[in-house]
Amino acid sequence: MTGNPEPAGFGELADRIAQAARDCSSVADLAAGPSGNAGTYLPGRIVRGVVLRDTEVEIHVVARYGPPLPEVCHRRHRRRHR
Question: How far apart are CA 58 and CA 66, in angstroms?
Fold first, then answer.
């Protein structure tokens, strides 16, 4: 992506979403998804596990062993709406 400017605020938003996901106690880390391509591609870097689209955000996480996945999603959703 050399030469392509980063959309205003895109990188900061992707970084904030990634950090918020990692701060969730049920999330071990972010993942690049089954194809290895899930991420926000920015000039000179990629924010793995966070896909920003015009009308939605996709977050790929590695959950910690223990809580059922629906509970992990529910906790993540609650954090987002605080």
Answer: 23
